[in-house]
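Field log, afternoon session.

UNIT: design team B
ACTIVITY: writing a sequence onto a fixed backbone
BACKBONE:
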């Protein structure tokens, strides 16, 4: 079923894990996908090769979503490659754990810049193209701890909670243009961690799901694909929790 045939999607943080799964699923639905990361070109190329091997179309773009000029170039690159943009998925994020008293102002600002300001800049830059689409859609990827809280993540939780608020605000602002805006909040998903976030978060070790297992990135991607597809056009301003019943709002 190619319900996204003819659509163009841009996915930030698409080099691995949930971002890669989202890109693969959107491509499986027929969308051409712009794959974005700040530095991991090798990871993006792997994602692109998986899409192309399945018969899809992908473009690799390196961009810093905390830099306004870089974000605008990212959107311009997408337009140059595909001529349009219908779907924006703001997935890129930092999830470091630091005791509150040890968080530096620089660390606080870095997390805010990637997790929250990156979504703001990307959506604002993409808005002219999304407005031209007859099915524009934005999906922000949030996080479980924005609703449950957790130790040693004050900066991450504050940014992700802000992303929830931004989603609701944009749903109001962009509805007159026919653009839907939703947030998908994953919880306890099996992912490969690297860099500064290599260690498994402590809150993962303290919780179990009702279903007795952790989720797969593909299960998050399925929700995103539904929200941006033709059967998700009556859904906007919502937070969709994909967490196996760990958190029941």
């Amino acid at each position: 079923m190619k319900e996204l045939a003819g659509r163009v999607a841009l996915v930030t943080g698409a080099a691995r894990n949930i971002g890669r799964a989202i890109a693969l699923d959107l491509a499986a639905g027929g969308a051409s996908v712009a794959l974005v990361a700040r530095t991991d070109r090798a990871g993006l190329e792997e994602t692109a090769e998986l899409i192309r091997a399945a018969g899809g179309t992908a473009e690799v773009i390196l961009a810093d979503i905390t830099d306004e000029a870089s974000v605008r170039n990212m959107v311009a690159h997408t337009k140059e490659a595909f001529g349009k943009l219908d779907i924006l998925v703001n997935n890129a994020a930092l999830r470091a754990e630091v005791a509150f008293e040890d968080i530096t102002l620089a660390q606080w600002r870095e997390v805010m810049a990637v997790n929250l300001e990156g979504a703001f800049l990307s959506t604002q830059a993409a808005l002219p193209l999304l407005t031209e689409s007859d099915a524009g859609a934005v999906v922000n990827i949030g996080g479980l701890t924005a609703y449950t809280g957790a130790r040693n993540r004050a900066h991450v939780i504050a940014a992700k909670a802000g992303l929830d608020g931004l989603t609701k605000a944009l749903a109001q602002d962009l509805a007159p243009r026919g653009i839907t805006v939703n947030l998908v909040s994953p919880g306890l998903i099996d992912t490969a961690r690297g860099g500064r976030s290599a260690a498994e978060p402590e809150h993962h070790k303290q919780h179990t799901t009702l279903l007795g297992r952790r989720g797969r990135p593909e299960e998050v991607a399925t929700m995103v694909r539904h929200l941006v597809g033709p059967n998700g056009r009556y859904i906007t301003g919502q937070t969709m929790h994909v967490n196996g019943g760990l958190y029941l709002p």
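LOG NOTE: The chain has a mean pLDDT of 94.
NEXT ACTIVITY: expression trials, pending approval
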